[in-house]
Write a sequence for this structure.
């Protein structure tokens, strides 16, 4: 007679071990990345001070002191070294890790945008050269077979042919890259919004029993937490404050693009069809992407160049009504969380993704209208 209780106990033990392995690799990756960030960033501060590498003051900048702008230099080494250690732990305690073409493409793209950002932070690159580098990095993912192949009913469109999906993917990657770059206007804003989005992608990967990406995400979050300490609580006069620069914002934008794309593609060989697959990344990246679209529209209406810096971003508008940088940061984080709660509620009500998007746009416009009224009263 078969002892089913023995099989059940064995299965339960296996499940506990698997759970422990998964979360230990995530914790190890996060902790190591956090520690590396706290070790590397002070050295970057010293290097910037020695070589006079500062974010210079101008009429658009909100800070009143020259501040080092190479914080993003710490991101890639901290993230990859900690991720490697986490994966080694996972490899020796669980199943074999397979490296596919997507992984090669995303690592190559990360290196390209990282080096491009560093070069621009060190000695400003021409916009054309930056565009070319971002284009090459974005094109690597479709070349490795990773491109948006379904809109899940958005604008009434479902399946996309490669002829449409590939150029659309390249455009969206570059769009997200620059959205994260442009929202990086006050202390902690870009990094906070990135952490919120990364936690969302981590949760969904764990929900679908995908382990490798949560370990990578935890490595990114670890170094971001270390960076935020120096960025938000650092003192410019004491030389302990730093900005992430283009090396950081472009790398974060590229990684978020990859996680968004990875979640949005329809590949039933890996995951079942999910009608929320595109809605999730749209929701997690709502504030930075909506802000860029609004700024582009406003600049067009005023006949201004798309590349001309100004004070029309959402953080500028909120500070214009009298809030401090930290208060503005809190308001924008709260707004992002509210949009996430709103979209989840609308999705649970089984509303169409187009209705959800229109609702988001109307709520965002209402928020901007209220800010305009408060600014006039101020």
């Amino acid at each position: 007679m078969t002892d089913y209780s023995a099989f059940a106990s064995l299965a339960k033990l296996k499940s506990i071990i698997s759970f422990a392995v998964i979360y230990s690799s995530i914790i190890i990756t996060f902790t190591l990345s956090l520690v590396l960030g706290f070790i590397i960033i002070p050295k970057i501060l010293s290097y910037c001070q020695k070589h006079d590498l500062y974010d210079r003051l101008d009429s658009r900048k909100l800070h009143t002191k020259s501040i080092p702008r190479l914080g993003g230099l710490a991101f890639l080494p901290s993230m990859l070294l900690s991720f490697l250690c986490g994966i080694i732990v996972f490899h020796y305690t669980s199943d074999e890790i397979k490296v596919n073409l997507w992984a090669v493409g995303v690592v190559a793209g990360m290196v390209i945008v990282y080096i491009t950002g560093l070069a621009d932070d060190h000695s400003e690159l021409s916009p054309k050269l930056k565009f070319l580098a971002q284009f090459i990095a974005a094109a690597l993912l479709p070349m490795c077979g990773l491109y948006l192949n379904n809109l899940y009913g958005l604008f009434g469109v479902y399946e996309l042919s490669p002829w449409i999906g590939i150029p659309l993917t390249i455009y969206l990657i570059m769009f997200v890259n620059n959205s994260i770059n442009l929202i990086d206007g006050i202390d902690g804003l870009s990094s906070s919004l990135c952490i919120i989005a990364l936690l969302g992608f981590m949760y969904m990967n764990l929900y679908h029993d995908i382990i490798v990406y949560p370990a990578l995400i935890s490595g990114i979050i670890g170094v971001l937490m270390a960076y935020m300490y120096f960025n938000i609580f650092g003192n410019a006069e004491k030389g302990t404050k730093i900005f992430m620069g283009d090396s950081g914002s472009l790398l974060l934008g590229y990684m978020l693009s990859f996680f968004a794309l990875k979640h949005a593609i329809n590949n039933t060989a890996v995951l079942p069809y999910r009608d929320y697959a595109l809605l999730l990344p749209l929701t997690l990246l709502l504030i930075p992407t909506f802000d860029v679209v609004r700024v582009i529209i406003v600049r067009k209406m005023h006949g201004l160049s798309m590349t001309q810096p100004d004070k029309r971003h959402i953080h500028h508008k909120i500070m214009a009504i009298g809030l401090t940088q930290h208060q503005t940061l809190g308001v924008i984080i709260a707004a992002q969380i509210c949009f996430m709660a709103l979209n989840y509620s609308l999705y649970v009500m089984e509303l169409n993704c187009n209705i959800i998007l229109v609702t988001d746009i109307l709520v965002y416009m209402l928020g901007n209208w209220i800010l305009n009224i408060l600014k006039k009263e101020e």
Notes: The first strand starts at residue 54 and ends at 55. The longest helix spans residues 4-51. The CA atoms of residues 196 and 284 lie 7 Å apart.
